[in-house]
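Our consortium's second objective concerns turning raw sequence data into structural hypotheses that experimental partners can test. To show how far this objective has progressed, the report includes one record in full. It was chosen at random from the queue rather than selected for favorable results. The single chain below, 230 residues long, was entered without modification.
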Amino acid sequence: MKNQLLCIACASITALTSVATADEWTSEDVPSWRNTDGSSYYLWDTFTSANGYVDGPNFPNNEAWPSGEAMLFNFTDDAFISGSGNIYGFGGPLNIHTYAYTQADALAATINIATIGSEINYGSMMLAWTDGIEGCASGALFGGPSINHWEEVDFGPGVGAEVNVSWNWDLSGIDADIRELAIIFSGTAPHMSLDMVGLDVLTAVPAPGALALLGLCGCAQRGRRRRRAC
């Protein structure tokens, strides 16, 4: 039985690798504010850690290692890194947690995700936020995805899809100084291959006059809004 399962896994990986997006988005949702002041872009186009409990986080590939500003974990067992560098959920649905930490008030976030095989549980997507102070302001946001590319694929365990999907969140109306983001989602079933994840985060930028004033006073004010008292 074990050998049979290994054969299924090998066949699945071979089939999924043949339809992999080769570390390029078929269709990416690029926010209008990318590459502007206050924006950050984190890209995972290959992974090294399949089990966050054991191996720790995956750091973005487009930044010098290690990066303390963003990291990605899979928190489910029986996953492994495929030959193409994807996180492959063999024994169960993937459980992906992506974290970002900011130096100023977070105003917006966009995540792009590329998967192959079994699809994401789109209703599981959640953005949780805090102001970085234990026991103080926090909250969670949900919302529907934008399916930017969907193509049916046939792989070892059955029929799945090659998907590029994105979510956008506007955080500017939240009355808090947001400094930590957690974006969490899961798969619907085993045999989902996480190919790529891209995360854009926009933060507030103080006006030049305010920066000069802060320098003269020798003080720093966090973000564009005053932090709420707990």
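The partners drew two points from this record. Helices lie at 2-18, 52-55, 208-217. The chain has a mean pLDDT of 84. Both points have been shared with the crystallography group to help prioritize constructs.
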